[in-house]
Recover the amino acids of this structure.
C-alpha cells in the first residue's frame, strides 16, 4: 500500500464513500420517521419501517466488500507497477472522467465503479459497445476483452445521457494500442471465438 502514493486516487475513494453515505441517508431517515410514527400508535408501520431500512445495511455491506477488494488488489500489485500507476494517476496527461469513475493514464485504464479494475492497454485485444436494459447497469456499456480471456465493463453511459463519451474513450484506447479490434461485428466475433479456442489449447 505504501507504494501507491496517489492523492488523486485516495480522493476518489473518499468521494465514493461520501456518495454512498448520501445514498443511504434517505433510507435511514425514512425508516426513523416511520418507526417513530409506529411508536406513537400505528403499530402496523413497524413492518414498513423495517422494509424501508433494509436497503441501508445491504448497500453498506456491498460497498464495504467492494472497498476491501479494491485495497486487496492494490496490495497485491508488484511494488514497481503500483508506483507507476500511482505516478500516472497524478500526471496532468491522465484523462479523467470523474462522473464515470474512469481514469485513462499513459499505460493503464483505472476504473473505480462497481468493481475496481486496473487494465493495461497492451493487454486489450477487443473492445465494443453494447446496449443493455439490465436494471442494475442499464445503458450503453463499453466492454474490453483481454489476453487472459476476460471480459470487463469499463464504462456505462445511461441512455438518456450523451453517449459521445463512449466514442471518445474508444478512440483514446485505440491510440494506445492500434491492434485492438473495435466493434461488435460478426467478423470480430468470429475472430475472437477462434482466439478464445486457441488460448484454451494446452501449450
Amino acid at each position: 500500500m505504501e507504494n501507491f502514493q496517489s492523492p488523486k486516487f485516495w480522493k476518489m475513494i473518499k468521494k465514493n464513500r461520501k456518495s454512498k453515505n448520501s445514498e443511504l441517508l434517505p433510507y435511514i431517515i425514512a425508516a426513523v420517521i416511520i418507526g417513530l410514527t409506529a411508536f406513537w400508535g400505528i403499530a402496523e408501520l413497524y413492518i414498513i419501517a423495517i422494509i424501508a431500512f433494509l436497503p441501508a445495511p445491504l448497500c453498506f455491506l456491498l460497498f464495504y466488500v467492494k472497498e476491501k477488494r479494491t485495497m486487496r488488489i492494490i496490495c497485491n500489485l508488484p511494488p514497481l507497477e503500483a508506483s507507476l500507476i500511482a505516478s500516472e494517476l497524478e500526471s496532468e496527461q491522465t484523462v479523467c472522467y470523474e462522473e464515470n469513475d474512469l481514469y485513462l493514464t499513459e499505460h493503464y485504464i483505472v476504473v473505480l465503479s462497481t468493481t475496481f479494475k486496473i487494465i493495461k492497454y497492451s493487454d486489450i485485444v477487443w473492445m465494443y459497445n453494447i446496449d443493455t436494459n439490465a436494471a442494475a447497469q442499464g445503458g450503453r456499456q463499453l466492454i474490453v476483452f483481454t489476453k487472459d480471456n476476460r471480459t470487463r465493463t469499463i464504462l456505462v453511459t445511461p441512455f438518456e445521457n450523451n453517449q459521445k463519451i463512449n466514442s471518445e474513450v474508444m478512440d483514446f484506447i485505440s491510440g494506445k494500442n492500434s491492434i485492438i479490434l473495435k466493434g461488435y461485428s460478426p467478423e470480430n466475433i468470429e475472430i475472437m471465438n477462434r482466439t478464445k479456442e486457441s488460448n484454451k489449447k494446452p501449450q
